Structures are given as C-alpha cells and as structure tokens.
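Q: Hi! First time doing this. I have a protein sequence and I read that you can turn it into a structure. Is that right? Here it is:
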Amino acid sequence: MSVDRTVFPANYGVRRRFARTSVCLELCCCSRFPCCRRCPCGRALRARESVQMLSPPRLQEMHGFSPPIFKVPTIDHAGDNDIVEVSFAESETMDGVEVTVIFKDEDRPNRCADCFYDVIRLPLFGRQCDIETFTVLRGPAGVFDRIHFEGTYSGDQDWSAQVPRHMTAVVPVSEFELESESGRLVIWINVWNHLFGPRNNNPDMTFDTVDSFLLTRGLRREVDARFVGLLNRVA
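A: Yes, that's right. Below is the predicted 3D structure, encoded as structure tokens:
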C-alpha cells in the first residue's frame, strides 16, 4: 500500500499560531500567496503540507511495529484533550522507532494557571496541542525490548501532581501489558501533562482505551517544524 499525503488545515491543533514577529500565521503572506514561503510561517506551511499518512499494515511493513494502545483518564477526554495523531519514524540517534503523540491540548489542575499557560503557549510554541515523544528500542536480536522515555516518563507520579517532573527512563517492554488479541503495547497516561508509564498510577480514576487514531510518518523534529513560535520544542 502506498503512503498517502494529506494537507492539514491552517488551524490544525491550535487556536492561533504566531511567528517570531508575533504575526498570526493565518495573516502571514504565506497563507495567501503560495509563492512567498521563505519566512518561518512558510516553512511551517510546507511542513504541514508534506505530512504523510500511514495505515497500520504500512506501519508494520516499514518498522515491524504496531501502533500502541493508550489508556487515557476519562477526565482528559472530557476536557477535550484527545489524542489527534501519532507519528512514527526510525530514530536518528538510537536503534528504534520514534513515536510522537499529539494531544489536542492539556489542562492544568488549576483553572487560572491553565488559562495563563494557554495564553503564553501560543506565542512561545506556536500551538495549543501538547506533543510527547518516546522511542521503542530494538535489542541485539533486532526485537523491540525497551522503551526510552526522554522527559516523558511518569514514574510513580499520578494525576494529583501539581508540578510533575519530566522524568527520563528506559523501561523493559516486559513491564508493559500487551493487548490480548493484537499483542499491541498498552501505555498508560498517568499525569495531566501526559507523562507515560507501564501501569496505572490512578486506580481510583476511570480510563478510556484509545486504540484508533491518525497515523503519520515523521520524526519529532518534523512534527515541531509544522509550528512557528519563539521556542522550537518543548516536551
């Protein structure tokens, strides 16, 4: 099966986007005149227009890897923070597949702090969506046996954490449960800022199973390139 291309709308994943000059992307000349695409806004538009969609069979064919299943607290869905896309690509620095998860938004426990962060997030990162990345690593035999979470590991933290730590860890795949029928990895989202873990740290909360989402091809840096802000990347 061939890889399809999709064009993302100008407001994909964010309410507004700002260039380094604080000019909204939708007002930039690049959004009206395709020939003028040399500024940061134009590069972001080109990055979104070149996104390649994947199917599960194609992902399996390319990487020998099936998309994971995510366990997401129901409260996160209620807050309109759904997973809108998961992007896959061979890592440039490790022997494994880099997995980038894009959430529509993230909600801080304190409503005032959440509103304030939403305001500063737009000019700083050029997006409203939350982006988190991990890498599924191959062992010496070429079999996926570990997951490297760089700043995206929850550890023992749970949803009540007011100021979560972005932890780094390499966790054996054997610590994760596998979906009984498909054998897909099950990854738990344990903290409101979407830190991952191998088990449920919030036994008193209800969870939704997210096993279907848009699959695309790309590294984290390529996902970041779709957005224009004062900072290039934040976990």
